[in-house]
Amino acid sequence: MSFNQAFTTHTPVPFPISGKALIAVFWADVQIGIAGDVWYRETTDINTLQRATTEIQSHFTYMSSFKASMVFIATWNDVAFYGADSQGRNKRNTFQVVLTTNGYVSFVIYNYNKIQWHTGTASGGNSSTGLGGTPAEVRLELKMYWVNQYLCW
Description:
about 150 residues; mainly beta; 1 helix; about 10% helix; about 35% strand; disordered C terminus
């Protein structure tokens, strides 16, 4: 996910990436046209907020007063890799990124359900296995700064 401008390369490159704000939950050659889908939502649903609050408080004990006020969730469900042949099309990944904030402090949570491949053919991967080449990476590069008392990303 990129924030301040589109980012179109599917093969991971070394960080830092000048001028880019990027959350890479699984930076690889995902191809949705073969299989799977991507969806996202921003919510203030009380049950979702409570789940995010509990998750943060249980993993960051010093954040016992954190109470989520907003959650953004993006899910890549059962997605295939770019260049998959007939055998490779059976390899699927499911992963998710959750962003949550209380308006002052923000957290990014990565969830992985099923990972069966890590590289598409555009990154040198094998078309039948989705392995080899330049593998997927997980990264976070956000530059934060204060403007008129608001936290900007």
